[in-house]
Structures are given as C-alpha cells and as structure tokens.
Input
Amino acid sequence: MRFFGLGANVMQKFGVVTQQLAAGEILNAMKAGKLDATEFSQPLLDRPLRFYTVAKYYYFPGWHQQATFFDLYINMARWNALVDRHKALIELACGDTLRDTIAMGEVAQWKVMKELQSEGVLFKRWSPEILVAFEKAWYEVVAEESAKNANFKRIYDSYATFRDNYSIWRHFSYLQ
Output
C-alpha cells in the first residue's frame, strides 16, 4: 500500500507492507500489481490521478490526516529582513489561500464523488471496530516514537494537551 509517515507505521502494525511513492508513480504501480491500495488525498485531488480506474473501493474517514494544510517556508534571516508591511502581506495572502482552499475543497468534493460513483467507485466507511483498532495502533506508534525522539514527545504532548483542552468546545458545539 502506498502510504507515508506515521500513518504508514500504523498500517504496518496490521501487516501492511507500505511504500512511499510520488503521486505520478502510484497509478502505474497499481496497474503493474506492485501496489494493492493507495492512500493519497481526497476525491478532488485523487480523481485526476485516475486511481479509480484500478481501485473501486474508497474508504472514509481519513483517520490519519483529517485535514491538509500547506506550508510556506521562508529563511529566518530573509524574513527578519522584510519590512513589517511585506510580512503582513505574506501573512494575509497565506491566510486567504488557506481559507479559500478549505472552503473550495469542501464545496467541490460531492461533485467529484458523484463522478467517481458513475465510474463504478464504491464509497465505504471504516467500521467503528476498525477505527478503534487504528486508534489503538496509533497510540502504540506515539509511544514508540516518543521513546525514540524527545522532540517528537514534546510536540505530541503539546498537541495532546491542546486536543484535551479543546474537547469541551468540540463536545458542546458540534453535533455528535
């Protein structure tokens, strides 16, 4: 299965042999029988890559990556050399791009999903039991990575604290 990062570590706990391939290599690897499955992005971005021509099952939710965000890296010395108004313009442009990407992505998914269905793709939801198993394996990966890498542990602990604190808002503000 084409999979990357920590999600690949989770899948390996279930005996999945994972490999990371560039987007343009996935379809040919699937056609050649070198891959049985792929994880890539979301319907809007997957459809142009034509995975649906060889893979007819599409599973949701993307348990390992609930959102995709884009990054802009600027050398700190260059950033510090910018005048404040240029920094503000970059921050505004990045914020607008992120908001537009999220909004347009949400608007476009259903249309692409209907197109994929017309190509014979079947949409499935992971069962609650499988999602629980993925979560359990995820926490094993977190423990292993935290034991190996103090920086990973520091970042994950900060993330986990945020999620714990955020849970009161998530619980009361959204339909369950």
Notes: The mean pLDDT is 94. The beta strands are 57-60, 122-125. DSSP finds seven helices and two strands in the chain.
